[in-house]
Amino acid sequence: MAAVGASGGDTVDLAGAQRYAADWAGAVRRLGFVPLSAAETEQLLLRHTLRLAEVLLSADAPEPAAQEVGRSLVDAHLAEPGVVEWSVRTLGERFRSDVLAAGRPELDTRIAAIQAGLAAGFARALRERTFVQQEGIARAMWQARDDAEQALRDSEARFRAVFDGAAIGIGLAEVDGTIIDVNSAFADMLGYSVEELRQLDVASLFHPDDAAGMWELYQELIEGKHDAVRVEKRYYRKDGSAVWTDLAVSLIRHDDGRPRFTVAVVEDITERYALQQRLRFQALHDPLTGLPNRTLFFDRLASLVEQPDPPGRVGVCFLDLDGFKTINDSLGHALGDQLLVMIARRLADCVAEQGYLVARMGGDEFVILVDGVAAIQDVIAVAESALAAVAAPVCVGDQQLAVSASIGIVDSEVAGTSVAELMKAADASLYWAKAEGRDRWAVYDPERSARDNARSALAAGLPAALDRGEFVLHYQPIVSLLDGRMLAVEALVRWQHPELGLIGPDRFIGLAEETGLIVRLGEWVLRQACRDAQRWHTDFPDAGLVVSVNLAARQADRPAIVDTVADALASSGLPAELLQLELTESAVMGSAGEPLRTLHRLAALGVRLAVDDFGTGYSNLAYLRRLPITCLKLAGPFVEGIRGAEPADADHRDERIVDALVRLAHALELWVTAEAVETEAQAQRLRALRCDTAQGRLFAPPGPAETIVARLRDPKLGRASC
Ligand code: C2E
Ligand code: MG
Ligand code: MG
């Protein structure tokens, strides 16, 4: 495929452009007289095709260039109405797919702008050309009339010839509005005889829909303030039908400059006007559903919110069908289209009474513009009726379908006063409605959005932070409840964020799990913890200090974890029995098949396996027996419930649970570690309940590796508080 570059790295398919230009030229030659050779026509239209492709791909507003192209069609005398209709329609239907090397459906809005620009440029150039011709006629007539005063008979005959023979309507009137004369072209245009029309006066030709200011302009003309006025005007025919005209009225003055009479030159432009209207409709409506399209919706929304003194509060319901892709794929696109048409009709019907604008944004997305809102409840009510309209069973082909939708709701008072802000907010709240389970609405909340944005910014920064080495490990001692000796340490990761300071794992581990980065991050933690632990082991071999590393479910699920752990041990030199891996209860309990084999292979390496936060999930106790685990870590909330020292109103439920769990663990020959031990009283109760080890601020908060070295060095420190 020959492709030529355009700005932004996008390309134009040159062969496609040539084919497009050839078709265009063929259509132009078919549709009317063309004063150029076939090759010249094709060359000209190829230039236009490439120009339009270039502006489509550029960042510039496309209208001016499209208008130039429309104008140059008229300049080249390719001015048949069929030509512009073909050109505009084909631009919409095939230009993007024929001429661009890549599809780029998002450029459709720009295509619509190009269509509108081309039609406007064409119409304007045509009108200007007609005006120049009309001016010529008016001058010739004036000249003719003038001559008539000099050489009466001769010129009268000449004037009559111009007047009666002109294909364009001409009328002469006194400045008081009395019609002096009209030619038969004018009379025919309005369906009167010349005689009948001569009986009327200018005022009787007024039309109730004449553009505001038109008759004031006429008034100023006959007062001599202008020499000519030019308007598009509608006349009633004698039979009551309407005719659109391009009307140019010139003022003829006496020698001393006083207004004398007016000459009106009138061209019937009904067909061209209808074409323009049709093109305007096409540019602003969705061809499938007939609903207003996004361009019209954005224009309307902008006119409501983006003005210095907005007329009032506006709501937007941004609706997206749930699972439409699946419906489309399973039913086929033809039935998918039928479904969209039906949904469009229902949405339009459900707000028809209030007159709100319903538009199709594209694909399965629709919007409802709720203007004149008093309270957000008004917009919610519209969203609910839209959801109900979508939910009624739909029959397409011979299938009955249940369709649902999700709606993001925004309110201009909360979400901002620019179209871009409102649509961004609508998009965010639609996302919430989808994430919360679909078939519902969600209202935009700026605080939630700010939290989402902060979360996304953190998530986006994670990979680079890992590459830049911004993560650090803190370690928290796990001590024996019998003698207070530090038996192990838990590695707890932190992010030394360049702007936000030290961030705890609760703020980023979840994100890393969602994005999958946890696998790389977890491997870094594992290797770093093994290296630190090996150093301690070398320096304090008698301590036998175990390092306990958290494994996320996504890490534990992957069979490759076994090789990673083996390699972390081998490359650090840490003996396997000095490494403990903490798995969450759900990761352990959910394991069957391959994951269970993975646990056994990990255990076979000689490392210990612990169940973290035990008691917060739904453990199947019988199943626990079959797992190769060595330790249960009791979740913090149970320990929190142990108040110790027997206060009179103590609720002993947590204590009884801990008691039962410890007995169970011991029956299964497992160690028990209590987490989050904060008070001496808790430590005492746990000791009485025969819990083996404990971890918590009472003994030591998590701290940098040096704090562990200090403890190892000073055995008294190692036994603090116990
Ligand atoms: P966890 O594994 O249950 O870690 C214990 C948490 O309890 C730690 O929170 C610790 O700082 C906190 N803690 C320590 N002493 C006390 C206390 O006396 N009272 C209370 N209430 N809490 C105490 P941290 O460091 O914020 O870690 C939170 C969680 O983040 C960890 O819970 C773990 O699930 C996760 N996490 C931390 N590091 C990693 C990691 O490297 N990989 C994975 N997958 N998860 C990690
Ligand atoms: Mg843990
Ligand atoms: Mg824990």
Query: What's the CATH first level of the largest domain?
Result: Alpha Beta
Q: Bin the helical content.
A: 40-55%
Query: What is the CA-based Rg, rounded?
Result: 41 Å
Helical segment count: 29
User: CATH fold name of the largest domain, please?
Assistant: TIM Barrel
Question: How many β-strands, per DSSP?
Answer: 23
Overall mean confidence score, pLDDT: 89
Q: Could you describe the largest sheet, including whether it forms a barrel?
A: 8 strands, mixed, barrel
The CA-CA distance between the termini, in Å, is 79 Å
CATH superfamily of the largest domain: EAL domain
Q: How much strand?
A: 15-25%
Bound molecules: ligand C2E, magnesium ion
Q: In total, how many domains does the architecture comprise?
A: 4
Helix/strand class: alpha/beta
Description:
The protein is of the alpha/beta class. 51% of the residues lie in helices and 19% in strands. The chain is built from 29 helices and 23 strands. The strands form five sheets. An eight-stranded mixed beta barrel has the order 15-16-18-19-20-21-22-23, surrounded by four helices. The protein has a five-stranded antiparallel beta sheet with strand order 4-3-7-6-5, sandwiched between helices. Strand 5 and strand 6 form a beta hairpin. Helix 1 crosses helix 2 and helix 4 runs parallel beside helix 10. The longest helix is centred in the first third of the chain and has 43 residues. The chain is elongated and about 135 Å long. One magnesium ion binds next to loops.
